Amino acid sequence: MISEAVIGNMCNRANIDHLLQHVAFPTHRDSSSKVFGRRVKSIKPGNRQAQKPVKLSRYLVRVLVCAYMIIGHPDIVFSGQSENETTLAESAANFIREFELLIKIIINGPIRCTKVDESFAGSYCRTFRSQLEAFDRAWCFYLHHFVDWKSEDAKLLERDLVRAACQLELSKTGSGNASKDRLWKSKHF
């Protein structure tokens, strides 16, 4: 399990912004591209007005929906059983549990819980504030593992695409001698 200090460090604003940049759509990464259906005015060489960068939401709905897909359909989402995938699935399940408890507290108000732990006797109350903090910690932990998994998955996809392109090229050209013959014929005819 990860210590509170490590989770607290993962939740700092700079680290979250860095992680959000990895999962943001390309339109949010480049301020000169199309944003929300409108074209952002580009800076002309003579006009040096600084553009305001697009501020990313701390909680991206697309990444939240991915958590539901991960826990609901892991066989479709994951390509195998790597350590990153296992850790991501665990953090997604914890994140969804905290998210659903937060929604329950928003709708019904504070919840009295009993904690089954030998060091903690009795019950405690989950307020909106305490649950929001728990939700945010779970979000940071999940987002960190989601970005790790996404970058590993992108590398695997890139490798598979390169392999497929090479196989396609080999099948198009046939054997090495046949491709040399085709090249010679195309140059001379």
Structure description:
This protein has 189 residues and is mainly alpha-helical. The chain has one domain (4-150, 163-188). The chain has eight helices and four strands. It has helices at 4-10, 13-23, 26-29, 61-72, 74-77, 83-108, 128-173, 176-188, and strands spanning 34-35, 38-39, 111-114, 123-126. Strands 1-2 form a two-stranded antiparallel ribbon. Strands 3-4 form a two-stranded antiparallel sheet. A hairpin with a 2-residue loop joins β1 and β2 (38-39). Mean pLDDT is 75; it is low at 1-8 and 28-43. Belongs to the TCP11 family.
Question: Which secondary structure elements does this structure contain, and how are they paired or packed?
Answer:
Blueprint: H1 4-10, H2 13-23, H3 26-29, E1 34-35, E2 38-39, H4 61-72, H5 74-77, H6 83-108, E3 111-114, E4 123-126, H7 128-173, H8 176-188
Antiparallel strand pairs: 1-2, 3-4
Helix pairs in contact: 2-7, 4-6, 6-7
